[in-house]
Amino acid sequence: MLKSIFRSYLSLPKNIHLLFLLEFNLSLIHVAFILVLNIYLRKQGFTDPEIASFNSLRFIGALAFALPLGIYIRGKRLKPFFILAAFIVPMTSAMIIESIHFSIVPLIQLSFLSWGIGMMLMRVCSLPFIIRNTNSENSTEALSLSAATWSLSTIFSGLIISGLDWLSYIDLLTWRISFNEHSILWIITLIGISSIFFVRGMSEDEKQTVQKKNDIFSLREYYDWKLIFKAISPLILISIGAGLTIPFVNLFFNSVFGFSSSAYSIMGSFTAMLVFIFSLLVPTLRKKYGYWMTIVVVQSLAIACLIIMSLTEIYVSYGYAVIIAVGAYVIRQPLMHMAHPASNELMMNYVGKNNQELISALSSSLWSASWFISAKIFEWLRLLEFKYFEIFLITALLYALGVALYAVLIKEYEHNQRTLDPVLPIADELSID
Question: Measured between alpha carbons, how far is 263 from 270 in angstroms, rounded to an integer?
Fold first, then answer.
């Protein structure tokens, strides 16, 4: 079975493999920032509310430009946008590192804002690119491979961070290079620059770039907003909840259990390895057990793990609390992430091919908006001296509501499948443009 699974990924089109490598390199930078940047900011003297404020700026640019970009790219070549992302992300990453080092707050804010725009370019264009380069036979595998880039980059980024931290320093001729948060982030940023080479290898057919009416006045005429709103409702709740937790889990382990950047990175790498393996199994599990198992059941188990992890803050004085917290975190991550490809596929199938490209932009925009709102909520709650476990329990509640909406969506979709002609999964043999 494993041989056939890997063969299905190896047989994907060259463009999908190049997209995977592009996403991997840029995600390598993104993950390193999530693992290390907050701790780096704290060591430079910034408070939790200030850190949350900086993080929120990442999502403003994406919020402002994702939807217009989604409308604009209909029928247009996507390679130029990938090239732009490959330049913007490393450049603004370097700006963030140095502006924090010199405590230049306005430049920190501008860099976070620009960095978010660069990542948004890649995310909004990735799904339409997959749609254009796959068919009904391999679209699920392509989507799962794209989702797996995050976990794979977490593995490598975590290993690099922990390895360099273990080395501590190296002597090069007359210079001594110390490996701290500042230098480690620089090294990973330089590695991420290689993403430009993979973009250059991408090719797009003329038939994929047929011009169509894509101005703001076509929004109401060409899209089914009732379907779109139903499809994104669970995503809104889950993304708001995720924004309260994911960017700040490292602060939780640092503050409650005293985890260093290296220790958290090692844990993140091991967890990401499990996420990567589970992500590759999603197409097989989804085809065998359906959406109920791969979305509702696994996310419910992930919510239970989040609750267990958060409650360990209450019992931090007991030696076993850290073991339970780490165990719950390690189990939760693969469960939550393996639902993403299946939920994305459900969303795309549910809305139909005419709405797919717009909903790709909408989901990216709403995810950014939700995380911006979440970062501000986290900042406000920490100012009010809320404990981490109280904030994480709010996340669990939002997740539970989102999963309930997914259950409703699955029930309606399956009913429609029994009574209507089936909707093609994610992509059909023709371009949606």
Answer: 11
